[in-house]
Specification:
Elements lengths: L3 E4 H7 L2 H8 L8 H9 L1 H6 L4 E6 L7 E13 L8 H7 L5 E12 L8 H19 L3 E6 L4 H5 L4 E2 L11 E6 L1
Parallel strand pairs: 4-5
Antiparallel strand pairs: 1-2, 2-3, 3-4, 5-7, 6-7
């Protein structure tokens, strides 16, 4: 995967917020308007409020266009009584009343201009970043929310689906992976 990652917070420290907002507005993801909408209109607010951290993959060949991005956050993970997980996995999650706190890969997207298949590399980089947090701060679980076509893709990288039905609120499936 060509390019270099930079934290959105580093851009906000270096440049006026309106310039960063304009720059984020150059990102296009026609396959999923929600991913484009997040980067254009929510990423800076979530960054300012400490709700998440966004990492941008920039083209390092001079024009610094945004090739892809991912967002990481903390979230509550609920495992329903009827689930698809092995008992050994649930035990390792150290649940309290069917819940635990974990790391969330909340957004994962590439720009329309990127023709290569970089999804696995992007997801691997997000997981590597979470491993740093895990080693420094602890935790047991990371999760990702995705649409149905992406389930197999996430399972290829070690994530396990929690339940076979999507979340009623957002229509996404939640998958988890233990550290």
């Amino acid at each position: 995967m060509k390019g270099a990652f930079i934290r959105l917070s580093a851009l906000l420290e270096r440049y006026p917020k309106e310039d960063v907002k304009r720059f984020l507005g150059t990102f296009r993801c026609s396959k999923d308007a929600d991913l484009e909408e997040f980067l254009h209109n929510k990423a800076i607010m979530f960054e300012d409020r400490g709700r998440s951290r966004t990492y941008l993959l920039l083209n390092d060949e001079g024009n610094n266009e945004i090739l892809a991005y991912f967002t990481l956050a903390l979230t509550e993970i609920t495992v329903p009584a009827e689930n698809s997980l092995k008992n050994s996995t649930i035990k390792k999650m150290d649940l309290s009343d069917g819940k635990t706190v974990g790391y969330l890969i909340g957004q994962l997207a590439k720009d329309d201009s990127v023709k290569e298949h970089i999804g696995h590399d992007l997801l691997d980089t997000a997981v590597e970043q979470l491993m740093v947090s895990y080693k420094q701060n602890g935790g047991r679980v990371m999760c990702i929310d995705c649409k149905e076509p992406m389930i197999g893709y996430c399972e290829d990288t070690g994530f396990k689906i929690i339940e076979p039905r999507p979340n009623e609120k957002n229509g996404l499936y939640r998958l988890i992976r233990l550290f």
